[in-house]
Amino acid sequence: MQLESNNIKKIQHLSGLVYIFSAGGVDVYRLTDWTRQCWAALANIISGTVNDNGIYLATSDRGVYRLIHGHNGESSHLLTRTYGVDTTPSLLANSCQCIDGAGTNLLITTTAGVNFLPSISKSYAYEADLCGDCSVGPEKIAYIVDTNVHVIAHPVANWVAADVEVLSVEPDPATPAMTGDTTPSGTASASSVLDTGYLAYEAFDQVVAVDYTNCWISGTGIDKVPSWLQYEFPVSVKIMAYRFRTRFGIDDEYTYTYPANFELQGWTGTEWDTLHSYTGLTGLGPNEDTEIFLINNSDYYTKYRLYITAVTAAGAGDFVCVGELELFTMPPLLDEPNVINYETENMFVGSNSGITVYDANDYRTDIITPLGSVLDIKSLYPTSSGLLAYGTSNGAAGGRFGILDLATSTNLVTESGDTLAVYTSEDSNSAIADDTLLQYGAVRDIVPAAGAIGVSRCWTLYAVVTDTVNGIATDSVVLKINGTTVSPTVTAITDGYRVDYSGSSSYTQPVTALLTATDGDSNPISRSWSWQTEAVTVQDTSAAPPNVVCIRDLSLAAGEYDELVDSVGVIWLPDHVSPLIVTEAQASEVGRVLIDGVTYHRHLRSIDVAATDADDNDTADLQEGNIITLSCAALSMTSQKCEVLAIQRRFNDADGERFVLTVAYYEAVA
After folding, report:
1. In the beta sheet, which residues pair with residue 410?
2. Is 320 exposed, middle or buried (0-12, 13-18, 19+ CB in 10 A)?
3. Nearest 5°: CA angle at 626, between 620 and 630?
4. Model pLDDT for residues 620-640, shown as the tens digit of each residue
5. Are 18 and 450 in contact (CB under 8 A)?
6. What value does the mean pLDDT take over residues 560-579?
7. Does 251 have pLDDT greater than 50?
């Protein structure tokens, strides 16, 4: 199924509605059946979000507009410009870059900086150029500035760069650029030194070496290994990553006397904790960095040391050398960031190389296998599932939508094609990849509803089983009622089947349905649900009984009625809880609706119509409550004026764009 929107910017879900923001506005869908509830049109949309206070559309030139949530068919005339450079509170610029919201919080990046709004009437600002994507977490906010990600607890005042924690591809070392073993602060030390030309501090001076003397070298012989290189901070710090650099040299055997087996350790005050260890490092050249080693560390220490137990086998020197040792309080990004998504447990940063996953509280990180240029990320619910949806512009086959298992970096689902915006429902059975709705194997749109009470005794079951990715296997649909296999009417529809079955009062209470099928890859699909039918007694009065509709001749021959009750033929309708009364005296009184002094009977129909009518009016503009005229070809009778109850957009190869209308109309009683 293709959605109404194209050029989608962002997708969010709140209270059973899905909000799809595109370059031309927002479309609001009901999650249960993907019926469009309302839409709002506005040009130059760059991003959008929804929070407890409403829907927000961020523009590239006019600031931010607000719309109420969209449960009741609201349209674009209700949009109001809420935030800009000339409003109270104001934005730093009218040219927005991104907007995100949660609870009552809003976060807006513009070409001039960042605004955080904890409520509709408050705003705190940070001035910065080159702002990009942003995200609101439960306790922190994150936003892109140039090639870095800034993270700060929810601000309570204006803030500056010094207030934030910075994530970057190349994080800054936690140690100062040392000019001596104790200057300018902290203390550099080692288990031994070759001589005063190779002191410990030279491994912390943050200088790119231009000669072979700019390094630490251990003592020789017995002091070669084990040996250690240490830095003591003035206060306790939490180190999350580290790396070291080999000695500058002329590419001879002495250059390669760098650590091969080593540990990073933290001093508790009584003993050394091993935070990370590595065995068998090889292959580095002169003046070359190791990778940045990530540490799963949640503790603070004043002293950290690199404890070395072996030197690379290629090294012939009777010592160990370290050109530079860098300790980092923030782990690195995988690449320059494109997009951020903050969740309760994690913060996800997408880049041109893949996804970096950070613990939201202490920034412990797992770097995911590169996926391509990541443009959108959504954590699947519950977040503890360890699954992630993402979209790229240059992955497999030119781009892709995928669902990723974070534990193994394995793609569980992959759909080819450039994907700017992604979404997954909480049960992961529905997903949006760019402007296409993917509905994985599931049984939906069930009637009677699960747990329903007072269902008509001669009920009609309706359900659809679909899979937009793999389809439903032919002849795989099986329906059981109260454990017994029955023979429903199974009708092929796009990506699956519609299932209809007429029941009766003969089934014991409660009535339980089990519908099963398999998708095109032989994966099982099933759903079981139950309902209670109503105990009924025939009403035989001169007054019209409640909740009845007369839709055919009441002179019923055998087989035309649904059930005999007290020798009276009764017709049951799925949406009514009382039978049609069949006495002739009551026939003219049954189910009457008086409109303009004329008596009518109400009918419901589903009508398949084209994208435009005979007057070139756009069907997509119809909303619930509109009155339209349908032809006799559509109704197989005289033309009728109908009230629109619901509208759904569909596509197929034969007919292209079509619309299915559910309408009510009234037929005069003769």
Report:
1. 405
2. buried
3. 80
4. 777 777 767 665 444 444 455
5. no
6. 49
7. yes
For 285, the token pair is 């050249």
CA 476, distance to chain mean position in Å, is: 32
> Which residues does residue 608 pair with via DSSP β-bridges, in sequence order?
660
Dihedral angle at the C-alpha atoms of 290, 296, 297, 298, nearest 10 degrees?
150
Q: Which residue has the tokens 């529809």?
A: 493
Other Cβ atoms less than 10 A from the Cβ of 36: the count is 22
Please give the angle made by the CA atoms of 21, 22 and 23, to the nearest 5 degrees: 140
Q: Tell me the two tokens of residue 124.
A: 């705190």
- Please report which confidence band the pLDDT of residue 582 belongs to, taking 50, 70 and 90 as the band edges: very low
Given a contact cutoff of 8 angstroms between Cβ atoms, the answer to whether 415 and 438 are in contact is: yes
Which residues contact residue 44 at a Cβ distance below 8 angstroms, ignoring those fewer than 6 apart? 23, 59, 60, 61, 62
Peptide bond connecting 89 to the previous residue in cis, omega within 30 degrees of 0? yes
Taking the C-alpha atoms of residue 28 and residue 13, their distance in angstroms, rounded to an integer, is 10
Residue 364, CB-side half-sphere exposure with 13 Å CA sphere: 8
- The amino acid at residue 303 is K
In this prediction, residues 146-150 reach a mean pLDDT of 94
Q: How many CA atoms lie within 13 A of 570 on its CB side?
A: 26
Which residues, 6+ apart, have CB-to-CB distance to 394 below 8 Å? 372, 373, 418
- pLDDT(70) > 50: yes
d(CA 302, CA 232): 5
Which of 83-97, 267-281, 500-514, 558-572 has the weakest average pLDDT?
Answer: 558-572
State CA 368 to chain mean position distance. 17
For residue 36 the two structure tokens come to 């469009």
Q: Please tell me the pTM assigned to this model.
A: 0.67
- 8 Å CB contact between 227 and 264: no
Q: Which residues contact 519 (CB under 8 A, 6 or more apart)?
A: 440, 441, 467, 469, 470, 471, 472, 473, 525
- Rounded Cα distance between 349 and 32, Å, is 30
Cα Rg of the chain, angstroms: 34
Q: Would the CA dihedral through 68, 74, 78, 80 be positive or negative?
A: positive
Q: Taking Cα atoms as reference points, which of 220, 312, 297 lies closest to residue 262? A: 312
Maximum mean pLDDT: which of 243-247, 404-408, 458-462, 654-658: 243-247
Contact residues for 88 (Cβ-Cβ < 8 A; gap 6+): none
